[in-house]
Design a protein that fits this description.
Layout: E1 29-31, E2 35-39, H1 63-74, H2 83-91, H3 98-109, H4 119-126, H5 130-139, H6 145-155, H7 169-187, H8 192-203, E3 207-210, H9 216-226, E4 233-236, H10 243-252, E5 257-262, H11 268-279, E6 283-288, E7 301-304, H12 317-332, H13 337-351
Parallel strand pairs: 3-4, 3-5, 5-6, 6-7
Antiparallel strand pairs: 1-2, 2-7
Amino acid sequence: MSTLGDRAAGGDKDGDGDAMGGRGTMEEGTATGIGEVTGVGGATSGGGVTSGDAAARDGGSTRADEARRDRGAEGDPGVSDSPAGRLQSLFEGHRLTPTQRRIAHSMVRSAADVPFLSSVELAELAGVSQPSVTRFAVALGFDGYPALRRHLREVAPAEPAADTASYNEYQQAVEAEIENLRHLAAVLSDPRPVARAGRLLAASRPLPVLGLRAAASQAYGFAYFAAKVHPDVRLLHEGGTMLQDRIDAAVRAGATALLCFALPRHPREVLDALGHAKEAGLTVVTVADSAFAPVAKVSDLLLPAAVGTGLAFDTACAPMLLGRVLLEAMCDDLPDAQARLEQFDARAAVRGLFVE
């Protein structure tokens, strides 16, 4: 494929193979931001362009540009008006390979910096090759990466950033987590996906809540509070051969939905469990670190909340907060939630559970 823009000779002859092997972690499915999950097809040969996009390239102006302008004129309420949200909307409707989804994920997480990165710098950020970045730009309907970067500077301008040069590594980790929370706040500007998730969870009797390994604490925290307002919450925080048995038991008891917390590193057992849950007829609602996480393809509704990666172990303030937001949305659809909380408080006072 002949493309304009920056192109490295001799790179990636067989498509986006650099992310396959040991480094390829993306699955053949993804979600378009916070909301519905959409199936994503496999890689096109040579990391090529989907039908309709290739013919659209003409001097840096594309049909994708026109479609995005049209969508903006209509005031699409599902797109967050933030650099990350506008970046996310750029990727919607495109068939991306696993490597290209890896690039997209890296761009969303670094939305403020991406418009000023070279193709080499973006490749290093995403852990892919420079030719993969060029093919990614072409897959989005641009002549090459320079055209994509010019577009990014128009739709996702950098926001004023705090001066962190004098911060030590611990302060930098906190600042990064604060940025994750800001991103979550921008995503929640459209409350409809969370409201829908709340309705699904409130209606499921029982409600299984799944979280393994790093996500076990998130699932436990949600289940602990949810049990105070929901009549039957079943925590699934231990793996093993009985996990699918517990999902089957929940289905037999009347469950209609399952909530999953999925954080890196993503255990294969979680993917298998969610696949089994979908086959059993459950609607899968997932809180994950990214809309491009491997669990996207086995989720019906995926709500992304980034984790911090600046310390030896990931920090998960945003996923935890999103879990509390989900609890609030679920309470809104449980008419007796307030009464249950008041009953619990009364019993706790009688038993002297808490020190005043």
